[in-house]
Amino acid sequence: MGRAHEVRASSMAKTAAAKTKIYSRFGKELYMAAKAGVPDPEMNQGLKRKIAEAKSNQVPADVIKRAIEKAKGGSNESYDPCRYEGFGPGDATIVIDCLTDNVNRTISHVKTCFNKSKCKLGVGGSVSHSYTSCGIFSFKYNEEETMLDALIGADVEVTDLECEDDYMTVYTEATDFHKAQVAITELLGEVEFDVCEITLLPDEYVSINSDEEKVLWDRLVMLLNDVDDVQTLYHNVKD
To answer: pTM, whole model, 2 decimals?
Structure first.
């Protein structure tokens, strides 16, 4: 299986997670994106990108609307982004992105997750150096040359493109995410994305083989997902 398979498997794992966690995550991110500029996706590209990502994760329209309306209402809530990096069993690594209104609370909760899983929390940069930030789009389509022509014509830096089982996965420079999204939509019209996001991809994937290590890894991921401030987990373990 290629990297496209890993991306789609990761996406399916996300959408299979508790819906309340997904909605809470995007509620915060949409609110902050709307607060960071004009609360109108046609005038705020960061908000437009986040709406597309929310839709690809099956977030309902009313959740999206509520978050934007909250920003329009002048709410004083504020969340700061923070990132933590750590090491799981074997060669597993993980990057944790959070949005929080209390950094001390968040780091305490994240440390507890690592301690309970017999894993090690690292320092900034100890893990993320082996990951690459990129834009990813996965959708049903299989005309590679046609898609490449459209993306190159839109001045998008395509770092990779894979087709598998009639699904196409396009990888772009993170800075070209919006241009790529526009180019794909203009070519295909209304398109249903399985994945539509800026993410971190590991340079290499690893497998966890022993039952004991798998138990510890699953525990770490479960505990981190239960932390309200945790938004997104990136890791190098094959699903």
So the answer is: 0.80
